[in-house]
Amino acid sequence: MGRIALPLHNNALPAVRGPAPRARRILLGIILFCVLLMTLIYPYPREHLFPRLFRQQHGVIHPTYIRWERETTLDAPVPRFDTPLLSQGGLIRPFANNTIPEQVVPVFPRNVVVPPHAPKPESVLFALTTTAKRAREYSTLWPHFMHYGSRCLLMLAPGEAHLRDEVEHLLTVERGLRCTVRVSDVDKYEVRMMAMPREGARYADEFGGVEWLVIADDDTFFVDFKTLQRMLAKYDTSESLFVGSVSEGLEQRNIFGRQVFGGGGIFLTPPMFQKMAERFDECARDFSELFGGDTMLTHCAARALDKPWEEVLIEEAGIHQFDLHGSGAGFLQSGLPFISLHHMIAGWTDLIPKHMPVRMSEDWTSFRTIMKAAQFLGGDNLFRRFVFDGGRTLLCLGHSLIVYEKPLTNEDLTKIEYTLGWPGIELIDRYPVRPEPRKRFEYFISSIDVQSPTRMVMHFEEVGGRTLDVVWDEENPELGRASVNKLWKVWGSWR
Fold first, then answer.
1. Average pLDDT score, the chain
2. Secondary structure class of 325 (helix, strand, coil)
């Protein structure tokens, strides 16, 4: 018998249908168009993609020197440029503009001009009291501002008398400083601090030639000794003067009032420290139970001058205590003058925010990088700021480069960007603040490469590992380009 063929209905088996050929072509075209668009146009890489697919950004600045006339302020004009500071970065794009921008920027002389009547280095006596252990550690910073020939007096506690010779050898032979180490007869640290005018007077009587006694903490850092000389040159050393600064923090101001905060430095003329020396026993009797050596010194100065203690301090804008917890980035980017820094090592304020890689944000590492920048740039240019790209890019020399989502206005630049990170920290009235705006990228200094006396490269890095370089070139544009020609060694075919 033959097989009977049964008819099959159209709906007996489901038809397997795919997209029409035309739809597939359209979908494929959209995908290819998106890839091509990202490759040619999209400027910035993503952290999870292969780094060698991206071009590092570079910029060259050619300084033109302008005369320094006065210390900068928050409301001083900031040099603005509508053109970009940096070359285009991100994904390699064969037809993109690969030009490295070069900007001419106004800066102050790197070698600070000191008035003829400024105090000579040897007439400035730095006076500190600390421990032998901290002297070994923090004295690595002191040659930066003491190597000009100034003198120093270090007072140890009575319990460390056996270490005096060792510490003096460290400071004079290993550090190359003109330091005398003595042992105090005072046990309590705060009272020993109050005794520093007496110790300075004794030193001056023995060796002579002291025009300024600078009482400082062991972690006080003077950015450039010549800016300190210029500051002191404003004053008449025949008068009884007590110069310094208050705290930037409102809470500290409310607690302690208008007293000196010595972390930024306290500056006394000979008549001042002689008068305080004469009243030391009286001051020790009446003020030794007050909180802190700064408070004791302020009250002792008031006793010596026969004035209310709130009226003895002469304030200097460039002297900074930094009683501020968290990132000091916004403060350092503010355009304020910085003659001294304090609390930056194992203290309150971070030079580089702690969310950055440890290799660049660790306190000692970041401080040495800033110190190297100060040595090249000079005290008037460290932290000097410029705005590029119509206000979207802020360059803070030797410290940071910020790319904002929205351009900074002139009004924005008259206020300190609040980057502290601790809620509730308020600054005193002279320091108006603004909220931290949204940023596209936030780069901080990772290293300094001094290539010649007139050219150096600032290497910046952001939290995701993206890097960029800004070249300071005083010679000519061709040398500026030579400093960044490494950019084209790998991707030269795309030029």
1. 88
2. coil
